[in-house]
Design a protein that fits this description.
two-stranded antiparallel sheet; about 0% strand; elongated; mainly alpha; single chain; about 80% helix
Length: about 200
């Protein structure tokens, strides 16, 4: 009796395990939808964070650096969201008749481009934040101006204010640094396109 009951319990456990395993099948369309949503959301968060600091840099350095060097950082940061849109559109276009393996690949593609663009946007934002803080720090005047034999305070005229607090500098060096930081998101896009192929 004990032997029969033991065999019966083992059979029930095996059948129960098989039934639960067969029922736990991921929907490929759901996985693809999650991949498309994550690629767009994470890349947009990275682009938004970088664009905030790039916009502040553009408004502060427009007069000193010119429109090209002032607004190039915000264009570089905005490209990150385009990477997420590309992967999301490709993923949504392949959702019909998708297998489970393709669904996991689509989810992995969305995560790869989304997380890489998020890291790139955070790096761009932090770099511009530090750059603005260093370039716009108050600087002492080389010599005090005296009028009528008395020393004038440092912040008595608009000329002194411009000499003390300078606009952040832009240039080719800044653009090269931002392009290499933005390349992190491009690497994620390349991997995502390979997974989506």
């Amino acid at each position: 009796t004990k032997i029969i009951s033991h065999k019966t319990s083992n059979t029930i456990e095996k059948n129960f395990g098989r039934s639960t395993t067969n029922n736990m099948v991921a929907d490929p369309q759901l996985l693809a939808g999650l991949g498309a949503a994550l690629s767009l959301f994470l890349s947009s968060v990275g682009a938004g964070f970088g664009s905030v600091h790039a916009g502040i840099f553009a408004l502060r350095s427009f007069d000193a650096a010119g429109w090209f060097f002032a607004f190039a950082p915000i264009a570089i940061a905005g490209v990150l969201s385009i990477y997420g849109i590309i992967v999301a559109v490709i993923t949504v276009g392949k959702m019909d008749g998708m297998t489970q393996a393709q669904g996991y690949k689509s989810l992995s593609a969305g995560l790869s481009v989304g997380l890489s663009c998020l890291a790139s946007g955070l790096a761009i934002g932090k770099f511009l934040e530090k750059h603005i803080a260093v370039e716009t720090r108050p600087r002492p005047l080389p010599s005090s101006q005296e009028q009528g034999g008395e020393t004038e305070p440092l912040l008595t005229s608009s000329t002194n204010r411009r000499e003390i607090i300078l606009a952040p500098r832009g240039g080719w060096g800044l653009l090269v640094v931002l392009v290499f930081i933005e390349a992190i998101g491009l690497y994620g896009l390349i991997v995502a396109l390979i997974l989506s192929a």
